[in-house]
């Protein structure tokens, strides 16, 4: 991708991937208007800090950047009209078709992949990401806004109005549970993500279980407790193995699969007595241990209708062979052979649609992505709901976004407007895999600031490789450094899963990062099935 950078002022940088920049609208207007543009930008940019502004132009032609008073003033050199959203007419687009500026909320690998897919969307003109990270900014997939306080709804609304943002996509769960989508929708800003009330499907495991009970959604048998003694008595009656879950949000670490009664008692004490998860652990859900194969199922929901995404499967345990403690996810692949077309239909009919209808009946319609963590039971072969997340999974989102061929911005806007009925999605053939590289010590304590090198070379080592950044920053020498537990998502596509795996690991091995580690067996469950099917 060719990028053109214009230093319009000391505090704003405009990055365009329009290959015809020098011959198109910007090229003809820039020389005449640079000085006045610099004056306008210099007087207005202090409210948002340093920006690297990425604009997506997939075709040459006539371009308009319009919007809020701030934006239309700042870019008066480029546009004279004053319309509520960004629009571009040109070859490859339907004349007059809607085009929007998108703000992605979050700063991890999931958000990087969403920015990557949105930037490729024909109906998307520009992508902001708040706070973003160094890798997202360096990739040119979005303009990162590190100083925007995403927990301050009024600040987010103000930014959206200044930049004429026509769609907000909320990546992480915490802003959703705290009500960011409520405030944005109330302000008239289309937002892909559920209200705080609907986000309780993830924010409270007890709430999710009660919805399952009321609307007949298959899930593991359970009981909820706030008293440690009562919880231990129930555990003793049920026996081990058994699963202990913190009721609230615990950054993916609030689930303990206890193989012994002693482990279960320790988990109860850590949550209810010691308070390791704070208020998130003041209630626990104790549920039966389901034996089988886990899978992730995603559906886009507009309040009344739902459409499935492609299947994916992640690897929660930190060690090879699915050993060690749970993590946020150490790798994923798509499609997941365990989720046959028949099972996908069954999941939609028995789990997703009853949930959507149930939430609507409860008076809190769900708009966003429903991420169902499933167990395909060994004894029955049928899916049961383990948990709901109310956002794209991480790292499953990475493999889905590299395979998606539909216009993501257009589809998400349709969801916001209740217009998903009849919509279908296009996916690239073959498979995709992501291998997560994490800081040594994760999911426990780990060192920050370790240097990562050779990332550009790694992306070029094989076709269809893309590295998504989850926890990186730049040091004073311009080197990428690790700032989180899960740091990189090395993603690759292939004609089949074996080729995707080979390409992903080829890229991983090219990366020079002594302070990192990764699982070496991502996809191990699916590959024998695939090879067996081939031999048959």
Gist of the model:
The protein is α+β, with helices and mostly antiparallel strands and 536 residues long. The protein is built from 17 helices and 29 strands.
Account of the 3D structure:
The chain is α+β, with helices and mostly antiparallel strands and 536 residues long. It is built from 17 helices and 29 strands. Strands 17, 20, 23, 25, 28 and 29 form a 6-stranded antiparallel β-sheet that branches. α10 runs antiparallel to α11. It is globular, with a radius of gyration of 23 Å. The N terminus and C terminus are likely disordered.
List the helices and strands and how they pair.
Layout: E1 4-9, E2 12-16, H1 25-44, E3 51-55, E4 62-64, H2 69-74, E5 87-89, E6 100-106, H3 109-119, E7 124-131, H4 134-139, E8 143-144, H5 153-162, E9 165-170, H6 173-177, H7 180-186, E10 191-192, H8 200-203, H9 205-215, E11 222-225, H10 228-238, E12 242-246, E13 255-258, H11 261-273, E14 284-288, E15 292-302, E16 306-308, E17 313-314, E18 317-319, E19 323-326, E20 331-334, H12 341-361, E21 367-377, E22 383-389, H13 396-403, H14 408-416, E23 431-439, E24 451-452, H15 455-459, E25 465-469, E26 472-474, E27 480-482, E28 486-494, H16 497-510, E29 516-517, H17 526-535
Parallel strand pairs: 2-3, 6-7, 6-9, 7-8, 9-10
Antiparallel strand pairs: 1-2, 4-5, 11-14, 12-13, 12-14, 15-16, 15-21, 17-20, 18-19, 20-23, 21-22, 23-28, 23-29, 24-27, 25-28, 26-27
Helix pairs in contact: 3-13, 9-12, 10-11
